[in-house]
Each structure stands twice: as C-alpha cells, then as structure tokens.
Amino acid sequence: MFNEFGLISHAAATLAFMLLGGLILTRYLRRTSDRMLLFSALLSTLWAGSLVSQQLWGEPSFIVRYLLELLRDSGWVMVLLALLRSADRQILAAGRTRRLLGFSTFAIIFVLFTLAALESLLSFPLVSGKLKLVGQIALSLLGICLVEQIWRNSLQSSRSSIRYLCIGILTLFAYDFFMYTDALLFGQISSGFWDARGMVNALIVPLLGITMINTRKQPVEFQLSRNAMFHVSALVFAGIYLLFAAAGGYYVRVLGGDWGDALQMLFITGALAFLGLLLTSRRFRARLMVFISQNFFDYKYDYREEWLKMTRELANLSDQPPLPERIIRILAGLLESSSGALWVRDEDGNFMLQNTVNMEQPRFTSIDGTCELARFFSEREWIIDLDEYRSDPVRYNLLEIPDPILKFSHGWLLIPMYLGNELYGITLVGRANARVELNWENFDLVRVVARQTCNLLAQADAQNRLSRAMQFEAVSKASAFMVHDLKTLIAQLSLLVRNSAHHRDNPAFIDDMISTTDHAVQKMSNLVDHIRKPAPVQGEQSPLNLHQMIGELATHYCRNQPRPRVLGPSDPVMVRADRDQLWSVLGHLIQNAQDATPPDGEVTLTLKASSDHVVLFIQDTGTGMSEEFIRMQLFKPFESTKGLTGMGIGAYQAREYVRQLGGNIDVTSEPGMGSCFSVLLPTVRLASRTEPADPEPDTVEEPAPEALPERARGLHSP
C-alpha cells in the first residue's frame, strides 16, 4: 500500500547515496577504503531505489529486495574490513582478528544470501521469517562490533579522519539492530521503524561526505589489545544472549495463554537481571579473559596495560587503601585472583603479617626469619605453588612451609619479594577465579612486579622510620633546652647552699633563700609545661621598661669581670615581652660577652631608640669571632665552643625568642678585636598617664627573675 512518508524517506536515501557515489567517483578514489565506500554507496542506492520502486509499482519482489539489502550490508562490512587491512603488517593478532570477524560476517551473509536465492529459484520457503530476522540481527551486531573495534584500537591522531565514517556506519547498523530486534519480539516489523529507515540512511550520508572531503592518506593504526577484545567478546555474547532471551520470551508468550504477556515480561526481566549478574561476575570476567589470552594472543599479558595499571595504583599517596593492600591486589590481579596476604620483615628479622585481602587471618601470623622457607627464598627466587607442593613435596626438596601460611585454606602461590638481593617480604596469593595455566610468562611478570612493589614498601618503611626519628629528635631538642635552663637554676641553688653554712641564722638570708627557691620552683614548672606542649609558648607579654631592665641586668652581672657598663640616654623605652624570657635572653648574651672578654676588657650596654624600634648593643672587647663561625655555627643548635660544659643552644634560643617578638639579633665581630650583638625590638606606645584605666607602665615591681635577691648576692663570699 502506498505510504507517503515511507516513499519520501527512501527516495531521499536513494538521492543521497547517488550524490555520495558521484562525489567519490569524480574526486576521491585513492585508497581501498575509498573504492569500498563507492561500492557500498552504489549498492545502497540500488537498495533504496528498489524500495521506492516497490511502493510505486509493486516491483521488485521481496526476495530481490532482501538480496539487495544483504549486498548493501556486505558492502559496509567491506568498508570496515578495509580500514583494518593495514594492521596485518603491525601485529599478527590484528590480522587474525580481522580474518575472524570478516569470516564470521561473510559466512552469515553467504548463508542468508544462498537460502534467499534458493527460495527464489525453487519458489519454496526454506527458512522461516524469524530465522531471517535472527540472521539480520546477527549481521547488524557484527557490524557494530567491527566499528567498536576500529574506534577503540585506533590511535588518537588518526581518529579525526575516521570519526564521521564510524559514527555513520554505527548508526546504520544500530538502527537495523533495534528494528529487527523489535520485529523479533512482536512478530512483525514496526511500520514506524520501516518508514523512518530511509530517512535515517539519508541523514548519515553527509557524515560520509565529510569523511571523504577531510580524508588524508593516513592509515588507521589498528592495535589490538586484550581489553578491546574483551569488550568485543562481551558485546557479542550479550547480543547472542539477548537473541535467545527474545526467542524465549516469544515462546513464553505464545504458550502462556492468558498469562502470556505477564510471563513474557517476567521472563525477559529475569534474563536481563541474570545477564547483569553474569557480566559483573569477577569469575566470569576472569575466565573470559583467560580464554581470550589463550586463543587470540601470542602473549598472556598486555604489558603496557598492566604497567599503567600498576603505576596508577602505586601513584596513590594516600593511605586509603593502605599500601600493603594495594600491593596484594596488584599481584593477585596478575594471576586472576582477588585474595592474598603480605608479610614484611621487621627490625628483628622476622616476617610480620601486614595485611590480608578476602582472607581470614589465622591466630598466629608471625613467620620466623630463620625458618627453612626464608632460607629457601634466600637461595632461590622461586614462586611456590602450594597445590603442587601438597601433591609432590619432593619437587621443593621436602621444604617445610610455616603454619601461618598453611593455615590460609585458600592459599595458592607464595611469591618472594626482594629488596636488592635480600628477602624483604612474602606474598601469598589466593586461588584464582578461573583456571590459569602457569608458565614462564606468568612467573617472569610476577617477579618483576614483586621487586618493584617491594621497593615501594621499603620506601614507605624508611619514611616511617624517619618520622619516628624526627619525633625523637624533637624530644631530645626539648630536653636539651630544659637542661640549658636548669643549669642556671642549679647555679642559683648552689650559691644558696654554699652560703647557708655561714648565714643560716640571718633572718634576711632566710627570706632571700625562700624567695629564690620559690622562683626556681616556678621556673621548673614552666619548663615542665613547655615540654608537655610541643608548640612554642611565648608566655604572657606585657609592656616593659627596657632601660630599667638593662640597669638591673648590669647590676646583677657586676659580680663578674669585666663589669658591664650602661651607656646612652636614660629615657624610658617600652617594649612588649614576657619578662622572664626576655631577662633570660639578654642575660645570656651579657654572660657570653663577659666569658669572652678578659677581666681588664670592657662590656658596654647601649640603647638607641627610634619612633617604633629600639636597638640594644651588647659590645665587648673580647676574643671575637670569625665571619665563618658567625654564619655557620653561632646560631646553629647543639654547636658549642665550650666543650662538654656547653649545650650550644643559648644563642639559638635567644634569637628565636627575639624573632617571635618581631625583632632580630645581628652580630658583627672580628677576631682579636671583640664582638657586638645588636638586639632589635619593636617598641610600644602607651596611653597618657592621666587616664585612670591604664596601668603604670614605668613601674617594675617584681624582682629580676634570673637574679638572686640583693641580700643573697651580697653574701656570695664566705
């Protein structure tokens, strides 16, 4: 019956393919694929024209139109195979796959074409219409697989030249696949699918034209990979499965009576759910991959893919999942397994269990580092097959396997892991999800990957050891600071003890002793708090009169020679700091200046203030220091010129605290001439004294914390 839309649709397809053939014929006949495309365009023109003629005049017959459609499909398959032809000179497996796909496709076309021709000659139907539909579906599915194979395995640089061609041919075969699948399910071809088919074919012609205009003499670099072959095989399997599911659903509906439609939907839903479970099954995927590797490839592994996969896993610097677990999964994945365990050598030379994957841990997991297995691996880099060991222990010289390994009921392979030439770890791989025939290729790849991953384990262990060492260093550093401050307290208390024998009956001495002891207790309490808190604690900062503090320091250290002298103006200079810590810092610098200066020398303290900063110059005429010593050692912790009596952290500690206040310490010195320490501190501005809310900043009520009370100092000599 005349159908206006169907006529227009197929007429558009006829005209479009005719124009494409003319374009190719007049301008582009350079490659085999170009000539195949011309041949396919002409066959498609005849096919679409026969459908137009049938709707207008009722001719040609169904058999002729069916034969023309088979010829059209074979033409597009030849275009795809022509794109793969250049792969024969690259790898043998590519040629095998091309021949396998080509043989399968043309075998289906030949069978369908022969049966249709015999039916035409004998005027007798040899096969049912459903079988013809199944053949068309299989032909369309193979065409889709060819397109997917070409695209997946072509180089990135060559995809631009075949992109439109692949999209066009894929659209053609995919449309036929859905149309014939729908017809198989419902027992007839949908009129909507059939009428729109010609227009769909016409719409893909511009894509083919763009391909011919933009094409270059650039062969398709076809590189077959296991993943590509796996996806193609899975797609073919899914297509065949869906065909059987459709046929089963049809017969369920026919035989189901009144419940036929409901039973058909139930059957198809169950079949699709089972297909999903099957395709996501690790065991099924492993068996399919082993089958592909054994029958389509000369080597078992795609080494490029395996190496990239391992690199991606090990490049993850996070601990989720932990590194031992990732290493187990890498080694197990090479052998189609999903379980395993890892032992790593500890500091005592024994092997401790680090992690397990999909394996239940036994009660005892430690392996003695002197056991027979460890000695065996130290002599031979063998991979032990536990199944083979159980059946023939003599093959492994009656080797004794430790119980922590044998307790894993699903253990399969024992893989030694070497760091250099020393045994560093042992990996146990669980049984494979598919039957794997082990040969030299498996063992070589596993050994290489085991050595690479072992280096990562050793590096991670070294980082952990370094982190622990840094923590101990921090504790040692805090202890050194504590000892340095305790030396000052010991000196104070020792002075009290020496004078107590002569002045124990003096009430004033007793008061000074109590005050000094109380200060020592407070100082030691602060030290304990500082050790408990790793972060530096600056203490409570308050405005201080620096000039007044310098005078008190000069008075305190006047008992040593040479006595420090204070120079410069006596105007108050206010800084904000913790009084105890600033006293300790400046006192340390004055004490060092006195130690470096002979008794007849000079130590001067000079203050110079600006609007926002003040500089204290502590100058001496002592031995001086070289420029190299100042640059390399003076402010470096634990470097001392006082031998065993010095901690080497006083100058470092002083500069760090001054920097916390926003200042700095600079040094100028010359050997034999003396040194000058410049202590730069920011000043603070106080509000007017007339404001009652502000405290009196110039008044310093508390005694110098580092100094002994005046009466105690006066009693220094017995």
Automatic annotation (TrEMBL):
Any single GO molecular-function term of the entry would be: ATP binding
Pfam families, alphabetized: HATPase_c
SUPFAM superfamilies hit by this protein: ATPase domain of HSP90 chaperone/DNA topoisomerase II/histidine kinase, GAF domain-like
- InterPro entries attached to this UniProt entry: HATPase_C_sf (IPR036890), HATPase_dom (IPR003594), His_kinase_dom (IPR005467), Sig_transdc_His_kin-like_C (IPR004358), XrtA/PrsK (IPR014265)
- Residue ranges occupied by any Histidine kinase domain in the UniProt entry: 481-685
Q: Could you tell me the superkingdom of the organism this chain comes from?
A: Bacteria
Q: Which UniProt keywords apply?
A: ATP-binding, Kinase, Membrane, Nucleotide-binding, Phosphoprotein, Transferase, Transmembrane, Transmembrane helix, Two-component regulatory system
Write down what this protein is called.
histidine kinase
